[in-house]
Amino acid sequence: MSSKLVPSDPSKVMVIRDIVPKTITTFSTPFWRFGRIKVGGRGTVVRLQSGALAVFSPVALTEDVKKKVAEMGEVKYITALDTEHHIFLGPWHTAYPNAQVLGPEGLPEKRASQSNEAVPFTHIFSASTPILSIGADFDAEFTWEYVAAHANKEIVFNHTPTGTLIQADLLFNYPPTEQFSRTGVSPTSGLLTRLFGAVTNTSGMGQKRLIWYGISARDRSGFSKSVARIEKWRFERIVGCHGDVVETGGKGVFQRVMEWHLDLARKAE
């Protein structure tokens, strides 16, 4: 984990925010893709009605993060939302060894090849064997879709009580204003960052084209089917790992960015 990718002292620049009081907290931090492109990073913790905590895309486990987590409850589930968002799984598993660890197929092998810490996965999402149950308290509040056709093997969750879609790389919402708000630098500075922003914002055609011609090109039909299932869920907020949280109107944003895939899915019915 190079300091060119993540901050050397995350506690100085991380933004911890309750986006749904007493239920959902986000941990937003700077992150540079390839050490140059400002994309930002974000972890999310959801407090279930049982009092247990579900963690998604864990970020650096700073003392402030530990304190906030302790105030919220006991960590029971830790999820790497795709094959890219796993670098802090080791520290979180060490701190909360009784938590179930979830991730997509291919991730255990990838971590082993990179000599990451050994983490025992409780649930591995795969296209051949759908996961129907994770835990009674988890199942009662979440719906999920494994987007196997996504280049990063994306797992998407919807927290139904709050209408909050939680995902990593399925949809970006550039710029990463909150994630760089404590760094003293502009989240949009730099030519590469601006070029990246042109294809990862939610207002133009850039991201729609990127997903259609790039991310889903390997299996556009399978990707469209997953997107169509997600579109049927009730949600208004979108929490992603890169860029700002879509606080309201998330369903409309999702429909606009995924329009071509939703059209393809309808034609296939």
UniProtKB/TrEMBL annotation:
Domain of life: Eukaryota
Record organism: Massariosphaeria phaeospora
Protein name: Beta-lactamase-like protein
Organism ancestry: Eukaryota, Fungi, Dikarya, Ascomycota, Pezizomycotina
